[in-house]
C-alpha cells in the first residue's frame, strides 16, 4: 500500500532524512519512533505532500507520487497532527471544519456524513456548532480525527496524535484509532516518541536516529527486549524505566 | 419551527440546524455589541448620520446652494439653526447635504481599499517567494509616494470631482492594509490548521479566501476605522486644492477649509463641520473597536 524508498529530505544544507525506506501492506500499521530531531515527523510530512523538497521514491497504492499531489491523493491519504490546539481553525465551528473536506471533494450528503463522523469518534452532537476553543484537548483531537476520516481515506498518517494529551485521554484516543482501523480497514503510519504508544497500535516498528532508520523490529520482539541496535535498547530502557519507576 | 427567532430558539446551546446555529451566533454577537456602551454610541451616531444624510431633502430648511450675501456669517438663529457661511448659505442644510458627499466618499474609499489591501496582503503572504516580493515592492512604491501628491497627480490626470477624489484616495490608502494583511497571513500560513486545509486538497485560492482572509479581517476593521478621519481630511485637502468635491457642492472638509479664516471672529462657521467630522470619526472608531471584539469568537 505504502512503499517509500531511499527518501531523502534536506532543509538548506542540512540533510534531515538520509535515505529511509518503509513498506506498509494494505491494512497494515507501521510505527516510527525516535527522539526529537530524528526526522520522523519530516518523513510523514514528505509522505503527506506538505513538504515537497524530497528525493527518492514514494509509491502509494501502486502509483508513484511526485512532490505535487492531486486531489485524488488527498482523498486517499489524510493526516492527524500532533497539536489539537493548533490543527483546528480557530474561527470555524466544528461543523464548518468537518464540511470543508466534503465541499472540496464535492461529496454530497454533508448533513448525514457530519452526524455519522461525530458519532464515529464519540463526540456529542452538541459539539457540532461549537468552536474549537470551547472543546477539551481530547475532544479536539477527536474532531481532527473525524476531519481526517470524513472523506473516507484509505491511509491515515498520525503525527504524535496523543503526545499533547494527558494520559487518560491518550488511552481513549489510541483505542479509538485502533477501533477505526479495524472497522474501516485503514492503513496507518504512526509517528511517536513513545514506545508504548507505538507498540500498542503497530505490529511493526521502525526506529529512527539522526535521519536514518536504524532498525525495523516487530512489536513482540520489542516488548520481549530482542533488540538489535543499541539505540533501540536505549529507547526501550528509557520507556520501561518511565513506566515502572523503581 | 413555530418558535423561530424567539430568544430561546436563538440562544439554544444545542442548535438543531445549521441556520439556527448561524442565527444564534449572530444574535450572540449582537448581544455582545449591545453590552459594549461605546460601540453602541458609535453605532447610534453612525446610523443617525447616515439617516440624516439620506433624508437631507426632507430635513433641510434651506437650499444648500442658495447664496444670500446680505446675511453672510450670521450667528445661529431660528431662521438659520447653525448660522450661515461666508456666502450666506445655511450651514445646517449644508451639513446635511455635505454628509452625503463626505460619508459617501469615506464609504466608497473603504469599500475599494479594504478588499484590495486584503487581497494583495493575503496573496503575497500566502504565496511567498517571487509573488510576495513583486506585490510587496509594488506596495512599497505606493507607500513611498507622498499621499496627497499622488492623489493630486491622479486627480489632475482625470477630471476633478468626487469620483476622481475617491479613486485617488483609494489608490494611496491601500498599501498599509496590504502590509497588515500580509503580516497577519504570515503568522498563520505555516500553522497546522492551514496545513490541514492543504491536505484536504483545497486549491490555494480557496484557502486564502475562506481560511486566511477571515483571520485578517478583525485587525483590518480596526485599522480602517482609525483611518476614516484621515480619509475625510484627505478628501477635504483635495477639495481645498480644487481637486475634490467642486463648489458649490457641500463637503464637510471643504466647508472647514474655506471657513478657516473666520475661526476667530465667527467661530461657528468652521467649528460646526469640524464637529461633524469629529463625531463621525469618533463614532466609526468606537464602532470599529466594538466590532473587533465581537468578530473574535475567542473573546466570548
UniProtKB/TrEMBL annotation, chain A:
<keyword id="KW-1003">Cell membrane</keyword>
<dbReference type="InterPro" id="IPR017871">
    <property type="entry name" value="ABC_transporter-like_CS"/>
</dbReference>
<dbReference type="InterPro" id="IPR003439">
    <property type="entry name" value="ABC_transporter-like_ATP-bd"/>
</dbReference>
<feature type="region of interest" description="Disordered">
    <location>
        <begin position="225"/>
        <end position="246"/>
    </location>
</feature>
<dbReference type="InterPro" id="IPR027417">
    <property type="entry name" value="P-loop_NTPase"/>
</dbReference>
<dbReference type="GO" id="GO:0005886">
    <property type="term" value="C:plasma membrane"/>
</dbReference>
<keyword id="KW-1278">Translocase</keyword>
<keyword id="KW-0997">Cell inner membrane</keyword>
<keyword id="KW-0547">Nucleotide-binding</keyword>
<dbReference type="Pfam" id="PF00005">
    <property type="entry name" value="ABC_tran"/>
</dbReference>
<feature type="domain" description="ABC transporter">
    <location>
        <begin position="2"/>
        <end position="235"/>
    </location>
</feature>
<dbReference type="GO" id="GO:0005524">
    <property type="term" value="F:ATP binding"/>
</dbReference>
<dbReference type="InterPro" id="IPR050319">
    <property type="entry name" value="ABC_transp_ATP-bind"/>
</dbReference>
<protein>
    <recommendedName>
        <fullName>Glutathione import ATP-binding protein GsiA</fullName>
        <ecNumber>7.4.2.10</ecNumber>
    </recommendedName>
</protein>
<dbReference type="InterPro" id="IPR003593">
    <property type="entry name" value="AAA+_ATPase"/>
</dbReference>
<comment type="similarity">
    <text>Belongs to the ABC transporter superfamily. Glutathione importer (TC 3.A.1.5.11) family.</text>
</comment>
<keyword id="KW-0067">ATP-binding</keyword>
<dbReference type="GO" id="GO:0055085">
    <property type="term" value="P:transmembrane transport"/>
</dbReference>
<dbReference type="GO" id="GO:0016887">
    <property type="term" value="F:ATP hydrolysis activity"/>
</dbReference>
<keyword id="KW-0472">Membrane</keyword>
<comment type="function">
    <text>Part of the ABC transporter complex GsiABCD involved in glutathione import. Responsible for energy coupling to the transport system.</text>
</comment>
<comment type="subunit">
    <text>The complex is composed of two ATP-binding proteins (GsiA), two transmembrane proteins (GsiC and GsiD) and a solute-binding protein (GsiB).</text>
</comment>
Automatic annotation (TrEMBL), chain B:
<dbReference type="InterPro" id="IPR025966">
    <property type="entry name" value="OppC_N"/>
</dbReference>
<dbReference type="InterPro" id="IPR000515">
    <property type="entry name" value="MetI-like"/>
</dbReference>
<dbReference type="GO" id="GO:0015833">
    <property type="term" value="P:peptide transport"/>
</dbReference>
<dbReference type="GO" id="GO:0055085">
    <property type="term" value="P:transmembrane transport"/>
</dbReference>
<feature type="transmembrane region" description="Helical">
    <location>
        <begin position="38"/>
        <end position="60"/>
    </location>
</feature>
<dbReference type="GO" id="GO:0005886">
    <property type="term" value="C:plasma membrane"/>
</dbReference>
<keyword id="KW-1003">Cell membrane</keyword>
<keyword id="KW-0472">Membrane</keyword>
<dbReference type="Pfam" id="PF12911">
    <property type="entry name" value="OppC_N"/>
</dbReference>
<dbReference type="Pfam" id="PF00528">
    <property type="entry name" value="BPD_transp_1"/>
</dbReference>
<feature type="transmembrane region" description="Helical">
    <location>
        <begin position="103"/>
        <end position="126"/>
    </location>
</feature>
<feature type="transmembrane region" description="Helical">
    <location>
        <begin position="267"/>
        <end position="287"/>
    </location>
</feature>
<keyword id="KW-0653">Protein transport</keyword>
<dbReference type="InterPro" id="IPR050366">
    <property type="entry name" value="BP-dependent_transpt_permease"/>
</dbReference>
<protein>
    <submittedName>
        <fullName>ABC transporter permease</fullName>
    </submittedName>
</protein>
<dbReference type="InterPro" id="IPR035906">
    <property type="entry name" value="MetI-like_sf"/>
</dbReference>
<dbReference type="GO" id="GO:0015031">
    <property type="term" value="P:protein transport"/>
</dbReference>
<keyword id="KW-0571">Peptide transport</keyword>
<comment type="similarity">
    <text>Belongs to the binding-protein-dependent transport system permease family.</text>
</comment>
<keyword id="KW-0812">Transmembrane</keyword>
<feature type="domain" description="ABC transmembrane type-1">
    <location>
        <begin position="99"/>
        <end position="288"/>
    </location>
</feature>
<keyword id="KW-0813">Transport</keyword>
Amino acid at each position: 500500500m505504502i512503499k517509500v524508498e531511499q527518501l531523502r529530505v534536506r532543509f538548506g544544507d542540512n540533510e534531515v532524512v538520509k535515505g529511509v525506506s518503509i513498506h506498509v501492506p494494505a491494512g497494515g500499521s507501521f510505527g516510527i519512533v525516535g527522539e526529537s530531531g530524528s526526522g520522523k515527523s519530516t518523513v510523514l510530512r514528505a509522505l503527506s505532500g506538505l513538504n515537497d523538497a524530497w528525493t527518492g521514491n514514494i509509491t502509494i497504492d501502486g502509483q508513484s507520487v511526485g512532490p505535487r499531489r492531486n486531489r485524488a491523493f488527498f482523498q486517499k491519504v489524510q493526516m492527524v497532527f500532533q497539536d489539537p490546539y493548533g490543527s483546528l481553525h480557530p474561527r470555524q465551528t466544528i461543523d464548518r471544519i468537518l464540511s470543508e473536506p466534503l465541499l472540496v471533494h464535492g461529496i454530497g450528503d454533508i448533513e448525514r456524513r457530519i452526524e455519522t463522523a461525530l458519532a464515529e469518534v464519540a463526540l456529542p452532537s452538541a459539539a457540532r456548532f461549537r468552536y474549537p476553543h470551547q472543546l477539551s484537548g481530547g475532544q479536539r483531537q477527536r474532531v481532527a480525527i473525524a476531519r481526517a476520516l470524513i472523506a473516507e481515506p484509505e491511509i491515515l498518517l498520525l503525527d504524535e496524535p496523543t503526545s499533547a494529551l494527558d494520559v487518560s485521554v491518550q488511552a481513549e484516543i489510541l483505542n479509538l484509532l485502533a477501533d477505526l482501523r479495524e472497522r474501516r480497514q485503514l492503513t496507518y503510519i504512526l509517528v511517536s516518541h513513545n514506545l508504548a504508544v507505538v507498540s500498542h497500535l503497530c505490529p511493526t516498528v521502525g526506529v529512527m536516529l539522526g535521519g536514518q532508520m536504524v532498525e525495523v523490529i516487530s512489536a513482540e520482539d520489542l516488548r520481549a527486549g530482542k533488540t538489535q541496535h543499541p539505540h533501540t535498547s536505549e529507547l526501550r530502557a528509557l520507556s520501561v524505566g518511565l513506566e515502572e519507576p523503581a | 419551527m413555530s418558535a423561530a427567532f424567539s430568544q430561546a430558539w436563538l440562544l439554544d446551546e444545542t442548535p438543531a440546524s445549521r441556520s439556527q446555529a448561524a442565527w444564534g451566533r449572530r444574535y450572540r454577537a449582537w448581544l455582545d455589541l449591545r453590552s459594549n456602551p461605546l460601540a453602541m454610541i458609535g453605532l447610534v451616531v453612525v446610523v443617525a448620520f447616515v439617516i440624516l444624510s439620506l433624508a437631507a431633502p426632507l430635513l433641510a430648511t434651506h437650499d444648500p446652494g442658495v447664496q444670500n450675501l446680505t446675511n453672510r456669517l450670521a450667528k445661529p438663529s431660528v431662521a438659520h439653526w447653525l448660522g450661515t457661511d461666508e456666502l450666506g448659505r445655511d450651514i445646517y442644510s449644508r451639513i446635511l447635504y455635505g454628509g452625503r458627499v463626505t460619508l459617501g466618499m469615506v464609504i466608497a474609499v473603504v469599500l475599494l481599499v479594504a478588499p484590495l489591501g486584503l487581497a494583495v496582503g493575503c496573496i503575497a503572504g500566502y504565496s511567498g517567494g517571487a509573488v510576495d516580493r513583486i506585490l510587496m515592492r509594488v506596495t512599497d512604491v505606493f507607500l513611498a509616494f507622498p499621499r496627497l501628491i499622488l492623489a493630486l497627480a491622479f486627480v489632475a490626470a482625470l477630471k476633478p470631482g468626487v469620483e476622481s477624489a475617491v479613486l485617488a484616495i483609494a489608490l494611496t490608502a491601500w498599501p498599509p492594509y496590504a502590509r497588515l494583511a500580509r503580516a497577519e497571513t504570515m503568522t498563520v500560513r505555516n500553522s497546522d490548521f492551514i496545513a490541514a486545509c492543504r491536505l484536504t486538497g483545497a486549491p490555494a485560492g480557496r484557502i486564502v479566501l475562506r481560511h486566511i482572509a477571515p483571520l485578517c479581517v478583525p485587525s483590518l476593521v480596526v485599522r480602517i476605522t482609525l483611518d476614516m478621519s484621515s480619509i475625510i481630511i484627505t478628501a477635504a485637502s483635495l477639495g481645498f486644492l480644487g481637486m475634490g468635491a467642486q463648489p458649490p457642492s457641500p463637503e464637510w472638509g471643504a466647508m472647514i477649509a474655506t471657513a478657516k479664516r473666520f475661526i476667530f471672529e465667527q467661530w461657528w462657521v468652521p467649528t460646526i463641520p469640524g464637529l461633524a467630522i469629529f463625531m463621525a470619526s469618533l463614532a466609526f472608531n468606537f464602532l470599529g473597536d466594538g466590532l473587533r471584539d465581537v468578530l473574535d469568537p475567542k473573546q466570548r
